Amino acid sequence: MTGNRVLLVSAMLTLAAGTFVFRLVGPLLRSRVEFPPLARRLLESAAVVLLTALVATTALTQGHDFAGYARPAGVAVGGLLAWRKAPILVVVIAAAATTALLRLAP
Known about the structure:
Layout: H1 2-29, H2 37-60, E1 61-62, E2 65-66, H3 70-83, H4 88-104
Antiparallel strand pairs: 1-2
Helix pairs in contact: 3-4
C-alpha cells in the first residue's frame, strides 16, 4: 500500500513540475520564437474549433447518448447572453433556469 502512495505522489509531483516548466517556458521563449502569419492564423482558428467541439460534445451528449433538448437549449441561452455581454451571474442563472424549466416540461 505504501508503494502505491509513493508512486502516486511522485507522479503528481512530476506532472506538477512539467506543468510549471511548460508555463514558464512560454513567456521566456515568446520573444525568441516567431511563427509565420499563416501558422498564427491556423493556431487561432484551431483554438476556436477545439473550444466549439468541446462545447458541442458536452452540450449534446451524455455518455454515448443524446442528452435531450434541455441541455443544448440552456447552453444556447447562456451562449447568447454571453455573446451579448451579460454579467456572468445572469448567464449562469438563465442557462440553468432554461435547462431546468425544459426538463420539468412534459
